[in-house]
User: Fold this.
Amino acid sequence: MTYVWIDGHVLDGEQARVSPFDQGLLTGDGVFESLRVYGGQPFAARRHLQRLALSAAAMGLPCPDADALRTAMAEVVAANRLESARLRITVTGGPAPFGTGRADVVPTVIVAAGPLTRWPASTAVVTVPWPRNERAALAGVKTISYGENVVALAYARERGAGEAIFANLVGNLCEGTGTNVFVAIGSRLVTPPLSSGCLAGVTRDLLLEILDVEEEDLPLSALASAREAFLSSSTREVQPISAVDGHVLPQSSRGGFTPVAAARFRQLVRRDIDP
Assistant:
């Protein structure tokens, strides 16, 4: 049995329900955070809750109290007896009449957990023909409107890859469907700046703090020509990129930057559960 937390109550996941008129379901009006649980503790909860609040503000949604969400996360982890898992917080605009306008209601808040994806040691990526719009109203906001990501990831998997990579409108490297991208350029480790339209990933931010990384606009082509590159996310941590559009990167899993990044991140997790 799986338990979830909805609007203040821990419920059997099979019996939990949200309104069929919820704006999250009907219009994608909502924001979310995904955290990784280590040893029964959500990692980097403070940073994830801060980003949730920023995303909610960008959407014009009231954000639940951070302490209440910490309690909800702890209750879900305890009810499901989890040691290692993926935890998700979702906040939507709540029930409203059909259309894109919100009603004056309390948002729907859901905290749920599930098993971790078993990521391979490295992954191939595919660049997709659809750009991210770095000038969009919600650029860089972690919304539940994931239709573009679903289509892009399906495109990648049809081509034998594990992640899809977007350029932005000017043709610069942006991000993956649920990842940030780091690229070795000569002797430098580079990642796209937030102005590229990418999400301010929590793992990305932590890597910027524990590694010597430069934020710089790069043409999309720089990824395939790199000697090594890796993805970062809360659930993948640091995952080497083995190939880009079928082109094998020469140091994809044995490069200089990638194993150092992975080792330092794991050290950080062991040292501080809420950095």
